[in-house]
TrEMBL record:
InterPro entries: Mos1_HTH, Transposase-MT_Hybrid. Pfam families: HTH_48. PANTHER family: MARINER MOS1 TRANSPOSASE-LIKE PROTEIN. It comes from the Eukaryota. This is Mos1 transposase HTH domain-containing protein. The lineage of its organism: Eukaryota, Metazoa, Ecdysozoa, Arthropoda, Chelicerata.
Amino acid sequence: MFKTISDPANCEVCSVIRFLNANNVKPAEIHRQLVEIYGENVMTDGMVRKWFRQFNDGSTNVHDEARSGRPSVCLLMVWLQK
Protein backbone atom coordinates (compact mmCIF):
# COMPACT_ATOMS: atom_id res chain seq x y z
CA MET A 1 0.00 0.00 0.00
CA PHE A 2 1.22 3.48 -0.86
CA LYS A 3 1.22 6.57 1.31
CA THR A 4 -1.48 9.00 0.32
CA ILE A 5 -0.92 12.72 -0.18
CA SER A 6 -3.78 15.00 0.80
CA ASP A 7 -4.61 18.41 -0.69
CA PRO A 8 -2.03 18.58 -3.49
CA ALA A 9 -1.66 21.82 -5.44
CA ASN A 10 -3.25 21.62 -8.88
CA CYS A 11 0.11 22.36 -10.51
CA GLU A 12 1.60 19.35 -8.68
CA VAL A 13 -1.07 17.04 -10.08
CA CYS A 14 -0.65 18.53 -13.56
CA SER A 15 3.11 18.01 -13.34
CA VAL A 16 2.50 14.34 -12.56
CA ILE A 17 0.13 14.11 -15.55
CA ARG A 18 2.75 15.74 -17.78
CA PHE A 19 5.45 13.33 -16.54
CA LEU A 20 3.30 10.21 -17.00
CA ASN A 21 2.12 11.45 -20.41
CA ALA A 22 5.77 11.80 -21.47
CA ASN A 23 6.21 8.16 -20.44
CA ASN A 24 3.32 7.14 -22.74
CA VAL A 25 0.95 6.27 -19.91
CA LYS A 26 -2.71 6.32 -21.02
CA PRO A 27 -5.12 8.84 -19.44
CA ALA A 28 -7.21 6.18 -17.68
CA GLU A 29 -4.09 4.74 -16.04
CA ILE A 30 -2.87 8.22 -15.10
CA HIS A 31 -6.21 8.87 -13.38
CA ARG A 32 -6.07 5.51 -11.59
CA GLN A 33 -2.58 6.28 -10.25
CA LEU A 34 -3.58 9.80 -9.17
CA VAL A 35 -6.56 8.46 -7.23
CA GLU A 36 -4.37 5.79 -5.63
CA ILE A 37 -1.92 8.40 -4.27
CA TYR A 38 -3.98 11.58 -3.87
CA GLY A 39 -7.41 10.10 -3.10
CA GLU A 40 -10.82 10.12 -4.79
CA ASN A 41 -11.16 13.91 -4.91
CA VAL A 42 -7.92 14.59 -6.77
CA MET A 43 -9.19 15.33 -10.30
CA THR A 44 -11.85 13.85 -12.52
CA ASP A 45 -11.02 11.50 -15.35
CA GLY A 46 -12.31 14.14 -17.77
CA MET A 47 -9.93 16.77 -16.42
CA VAL A 48 -7.00 14.34 -16.64
CA ARG A 49 -7.92 13.80 -20.30
CA LYS A 50 -8.11 17.59 -20.85
CA TRP A 51 -4.59 18.10 -19.45
CA PHE A 52 -3.38 15.03 -21.36
CA ARG A 53 -4.62 16.57 -24.65
CA GLN A 54 -3.06 19.93 -23.82
CA PHE A 55 0.34 18.34 -23.19
CA ASN A 56 0.03 16.29 -26.41
CA ASP A 57 -0.72 19.53 -28.25
CA GLY A 58 2.61 20.94 -27.05
CA SER A 59 1.66 22.82 -23.90
CA THR A 60 4.23 22.75 -21.11
CA ASN A 61 2.32 24.99 -18.69
CA VAL A 62 1.12 23.12 -15.59
CA HIS A 63 -0.90 26.09 -14.31
CA ASP A 64 -4.52 26.84 -15.15
CA GLU A 65 -5.14 29.76 -17.47
CA ALA A 66 -5.37 33.07 -15.63
CA ARG A 67 -8.88 33.97 -14.55
CA SER A 68 -10.48 36.02 -11.83
CA GLY A 69 -10.69 34.46 -8.41
CA ARG A 70 -8.29 32.90 -6.00
CA PRO A 71 -4.69 32.51 -7.27
CA SER A 72 -3.04 29.14 -7.74
CA VAL A 73 -1.46 27.71 -4.59
CA CYS A 74 1.86 27.36 -6.47
CA LEU A 75 1.80 31.03 -7.46
CA LEU A 76 0.96 31.98 -3.89
CA MET A 77 3.95 29.98 -2.60
CA VAL A 78 6.28 31.77 -5.05
CA TRP A 79 4.89 35.12 -3.97
CA LEU A 80 5.32 34.29 -0.27
CA GLN A 81 8.97 33.32 -0.81
CA LYS A 82 9.80 36.81 -2.11
